[in-house]
Amino acid sequence: LKFNASDAGKTVVVSYQGTGAIAGPNALGLRCQKFEASGTFVVPPKVYTVYVTMCGGGGGGGRGSGYYGGGGAQCWIKQPVSVTPGDSITVTVGAGGTGKTSSDGNGTAGGASSFGSLLSASGGASASGAAGGDGGIAGQVNFVGSIEDETNTYYKISRAGSGGGCILGCGGHGGIYYGMTHGSTPTASGNPGGKYGGGGAGAIGADASNGAPGIVIVEW
Fold first, then answer.
1. pTM for the full model?
2. What are the extents of the domains in the chain?
3. Which end of the chain is more exposed for a tag (fewer CB within 10 A), N or C?
């Protein structure tokens, strides 16, 4: 994009809405096609360069003693890609990873997004402290306080790990949980990753959250 001194003070707003692959001009006058599901991009006539924004799917949250959230996905913002008019390019949108359920352990990693073989963005990982692509780092347990009642029984108040964020989406917030030091096992589940590519929150004694799916946006 090119701006001149005469453009100072002006505000430009770009908004993408809807689902699936949608083509049309954006607020800057560029043509664009948005993919929230995998599909095919056909290069228009006389177009030799497109600008691709994409991210992979966020990693699913882990469940159990680690309380780890899924990693945020790798992202590209308006990356220039050389193309040939008339070519059909396969667009893959990475799915969000699945949060761990039923038993303790890691969730699954998010899927990679790609624009043919020309550009790709890895999905977020789901492992103890693992990073997702070049995105956010998985959350870890964060103790936020404790209280004592009249019988001197201590209660722990903690937060399960939040998912890592990426440029296009925030990680899911870890759930608050509490339990007695000598008592029942506390439970907590958090929120899924935010659009697009955010990691899912970790959990203890409950199902962990899923990562958010990726996205691919092509402009020319």
1. 0.69
2. 23-220
3. N
